[in-house]
Design a protein that fits this description.
285 residues; mainly alpha; 11 helices; globular
Length: 285
């Protein structure tokens, strides 16, 4: 049975995705290479991303009751942390190296992130009988991993806080994706590929030689800032009818009243996520 074929099994863990297993094995091999080459921070970030998405997917696949408040807080905390981390650790580097080039890099990252989101959303509505959810998340993980690797390769003195905040959305994203896969009768084990995806590209990218050219590094940091800010905004809890939370938690009855209450949680969670990065920065500064 192919990874992309529909399955009528009741338990999405009755069989494992071959592609997901291969990706996991590759992550193990690349982790050994990364540790041997001194890329400890990127390797740790890769495994945090893997565990977070795998745990979120497992919880989403086994959940018999929806918990919209928990999902909102998961998304909000991750989104707030990503906004703060991108603005504090990436943006100053881009502008400091070259204000104009860094600014154009930010713009390019935001626009490309938006374009990729719109195209992916359009493809998700094309009924081709394939598992497009896992494919979209895998593409996102692989591209994000490459950017993380380049950033840490260009500036290895960056702390773990940035990378961990960037991948913090993997847990709630895995939970929501597992729900969609179960609804469409696809195997949840397909999410092993996007879970490993960050490390599959981040570790090799971190080992690439990065030229010490200010304009080039400004473009890299600016582009990373734009991409991650777009991802952070994309993960802001959508407490609207037909939105992410409504879809995942099936808030069909009294949805308007529930969504009104969840909007308060959405705002609170994003502020708490951003403030947590500020507190962590004070602790390590």
């Amino acid at each position: 049975m192919s990874i992309n074929e529909r399955t009528s099994i009741n338990n999405p863990f009755d069989w494992l995705s071959p592609l997901g297993l291969v990706a996991t094995v590759m992550l193990v091999v690349l982790s050994a290479v990364g540790l041997a080459a001194g890329a400890e921070k990127v390797t740790v970030i890769a495994w945090v991303a893997f565990v977070a998405m795998a745990a979120g997917a497992l919880a989403g696949a086994r959940a018999t009751t929806s918990y919209p408040t928990r999902l909102v807080w998961g998304y909000g905390l991750a989104s707030g942390a990503m906004v703060a981390s991108s603005a504090v650790f990436l943006l100053p580097q881009a502008i400091g190296l070259s204000p104009r080039v860094g600014g154009f890099g930010v713009a390019a990252g935001l626009l490309l992130g938006y374009a990729a989101h719109v195209i992916g959303h359009r493809l998700a509505h094309v009924d081709v009988g394939l598992d497009l959810t896992a494919a979209q998340i895998s593409a996102h993980a692989l591209s994000a991993g490459a950017i993380i690797g380049l950033v840490y390769g260009a500036m290895p003195e960056l702390g773990l806080l940035l990378g961990l905040a960037i991948v913090s959305h993997k847990g709630p994203a895995g939970y929501a994706a597992a729900h969609r896969l179960r609804t469409g009768e696809f195997p949840v084990s397909a999410l092993l590929l996007p879970a490993a995806g960050v490390g599959l590209t981040a570790i090799p990218a971190a080992l690439l030689p990065v030229p010490e050219v200010a304009a080039l590094n400004a473009a890299v940091f600016g582009f990373a800032t734009g991409i991650f800010l777009h991802v952070a905004m994309d993960f802001l809890p959508s407490c609207e009818v037909g939105g992410e939370v409504d879809e995942v938690c099936s808030l069909s009855e009294h949805s308007h009243a529930q969504l009104d209450r969840l909007r308060l949680h959405a705002v609170a969670s994003t502020f708490v996520g951003g403030f947590a990065v500020f507190v962590a920065w004070l602790a390590v500064a």
